[in-house]
Amino acid sequence: MQRPARILAVSGCVMFLLSTATGRTEEVQAATDTALVPLPEPTSEKSVQFSQQPAEVGDRVAQQINFAMHLNTSILQSDQIAHQQSVSQEHRQQRLVEVLEVAQGNVRQARVTFPQSRGTSPDGENPDKEVVEPVEGKAYLVTRQGKQLLVTDVNGAIPPRAEFEIVYTSMQSLGLPNPLAAFLLGRTIHVGETIEVPQSIASEMLGFGAELGEVKQFQLRLKEPATYEGSPCAVFVAKILVAGGANQPLRVGVVGPVVILTESCRTVVTELTGPLSVDAVEHTRGGSYQYQGSGEVRVAVHAHYRSRSQ
């Protein structure tokens, strides 16, 4: 009965892959309270055009990432239900990133602090109990060296493996070109227009490799131009569909608002919700088993950017 655990492991990856938009301060606290999250204010403009700004030393971003997944699974043998399971997983993370070094307009080194990083695990002794992760309340230095990402504590020592893996997964896009920004740069988009993000860009942006599946569809429909905390932005409705192959029969379809600042191509709001399903057959010496699962996944990311002068 290992397949349900495997499904949950992949669903955990979805949590990070859908929240690639890169501790308890008032600035971050505001992003954790739904009532305090600022809403985009619509403007009378009928189109938007995107530009980009290079990173600068002293730039800061406070992010709040919330993930929730519920999955009902069944294992059938000879068309009879052999096992059923209902599981849920939640994760909350706050991170504060400050740029320490820049090379050719890209971040080379940053300090990242995790005021909060905790969640539930269906594989734990108490699946409903929220567990504090080892990075909570700690700070790290993250350095981009070509294709490598170096992670140390603030004293330059390599952190324990459990901490390293969380920091690395959370910050793996640091210092890399933003593929969506490159796609939007210089483009004029009109209200109501839908753009199809190329599969190669969508896969790179979301971090999906062949082992997790393929991004079958990534649409952005411009709902309206607006301002967000005083900065011009574009409010899109996103539609994303990811489907795996025979070795990873996972299917995820999510929709929801995505807010991107037009002067920097930075994503400040992402709220995606949709169904999650799995359907596979496994042949063993003891017979053939069919694994079925259905549920829902929700991902929300809110970011607040500040420059050195702010």
Q: Looking at the structure, what is the overall shape?
A: globular
CATH classification, class level = Mainly Beta
Task: Output the CATH topology.
Answer: Lipovitellin-phosvitin complex, beta-sheet shell regions
Structural class: alpha+beta
Helix content: 10-25%
Mean pLDDT: 82
Report the total helices. Answer: 5
First-last Cα distance: 54 Å
C-alpha-based Rg, rounded: 20 Å
How many DSSP E strands?
15
Largest β sheet strand count, sense and barrel closure: 13 strands, antiparallel
Taking pLDDT < 50 over at least 5 consecutive residues as the criterion, the unreliable ranges are 1-36
Oligomer: single chain
Second-tier CATH architecture: Roll
N-to-C series of helices and strands? HHEEEEEEEEHHEEHEEEEE
* Strand residue percentage: over 45%
Write a compact overview of the structure shown.
The chain is α+β, with helices and mostly antiparallel strands.
Describe this protein's structure.
This protein has 310 residues and is of the alpha+beta class. The protein has one domain (3-306): Lipovitellin-phosvitin complex, beta-sheet shell regions, CATH 2.30.230. It contains five helices and 15 strands. Strands 1, 3, 4, 5, 6, 7, 8, 10, 11, 12, 13, 14 and 15 form a 13-stranded antiparallel beta sheet that branches. A two-stranded antiparallel ribbon has the order 2-9. A hairpin with a 2-residue loop joins strand 11 and strand 12 (231-243).
